[in-house]
């Protein structure tokens, strides 16, 4: 297939596109998004397009939806299918299952697969298959209007992003962060809608999911396209905001300590190596550099490069916190309690867990998911326990990212009482606070003031027991 970028300028695609209704004069109904597709050789084309905006109602539903990561501390990837009839749901799940495996076949996705929750949502279409498959001119009645030959591009597989969102949100999915719309088809194709966080793929074509992987680079990692066609031959703009493009070459980046200077000349297994500055990217051939020769953001079926992987991991941790379960920071415990947590678990390495007491690390508790406070021999008042969980992956090199995204610290207060029942607040002291707490507990018929028999009765016996214990002092 002849590369479409050579014959169809980006903005012309826009004007005639099925992705985009013609932009309204005020452009209120459209927004700029990445749209990329690949040919059979894996060469990518596309760029930024105007695509139809979500409707106000859809956007409201999108925004009211739980934030990424919440409530389950996972990034929710929802797979919806188009062109599957009621009788074809088994095929939908077969396709979705395979795609969910393929989707995580590149690093850093493979290692961080447990940070994602994948939900398959059944959407029933009236007719089987999608538009223009296998050839142009075939129109089918399907739930999300998916079709090939979008904008005149055979491999561009479009979807109504608004319909995809409405099916995903109204489903039983716990939360929606990213949507993958798969077509009941074996024809090669796909597309990405960056601003809508929707990617498309052909359900029965093993290579088609590559486009969705590339697209997640845009939508989750805010990565730029690293291919060199579709724009002006020479780039003349300012420094791009994306982490994987720069107007500065190898030595300039190091001198300026900017962009991927910390990664310069490094290689690691699983990535597109080595990191340097390669001229061309962001749709231009000259005047701009990319971090590696041929990454997933340039060609399909290629690894990501290290600066892109670092950014993706940062984004994963923007949504998923290192401590998956456990008491919130600030929680109070007594010296008899045990504090238990569950850390996130990437594939292949553990997060680093460290407990400390009053500022000193507890070596014996390293990597432990729980801390038995009674084993610490605490007494005499309030202590501070700090828990630190850090992902020390070598794929993150910037200290700021490690400290601010890959690290979670929680602090707990532990009160060690003096052993007297009169030390109501268990702070190791008998003072006015305990008297006040006793009075309140007594009036409220709380257990803390039920110190003497008969149990369940708050009378002079309890008052007398409190005074006796108070006067006796701490043992
Ligand atoms: Zn792209």
* Portion in beta strands: 15-25%
- The CATH topology label of the largest domain is Collagenase (Catalytic Domain)
Fraction of residues in helix: 10-25%
Q: What is Rg?
A: 29 Å
Total DSSP helices: 11
Cross-sheet strand order for the largest sheet: 4-3-5-7-6
Class derived from helix and strand content: alpha/beta
Oligomeric state of the chains present here = single chain
- How many structural domains are formed by the residues? 3
Q: What sequence of helices (H) and strands (E) makes up the elements? A: HHEEHEHEHEEEHHEEHEEEEEEEEHEHH
Bound molecules: zinc ion
Q: Quick one: how many beta strands?
A: 18
Shape: elongated
CATH architecture of the largest domain: 3-Layer(aba) Sandwich
Distance between the termini: 88 Å
In the CATH hierarchy, what is the class of the largest domain? Answer: Alpha Beta
Mean pLDDT over the full residue set: 86
What's the CATH H-level homologous superfamily of the largest domain?
Collagenase (Catalytic Domain)
Uncertain ranges: 1-28
Q: Which key features would you list for this structure?
A:
single chain, 475 residues, alpha/beta, Collagenase (Catalytic Domain), five-stranded mixed sheet, 11 helices, 21% strand, elongated, binds zinc ion
Give a written overview of the molecule:
Helix content is 22%, strand content 21%. The chain is α/β, with parallel strands linked by helices and 475 residues long. It folds into three domains: 216 residues, Collagenase (Catalytic Domain), CATH 3.40.390.10; 95 residues, Sandwich (Immunoglobulin-like); 41 residues, no CATH class. The protein has a five-stranded mixed sheet with strand order 4-3-5-7-6, sandwiched between helices. A five-stranded mixed sheet has the order 11-18-17-14-15. Strands 1-2 form a two-stranded antiparallel sheet. It starts with a helix and ends with a helix.
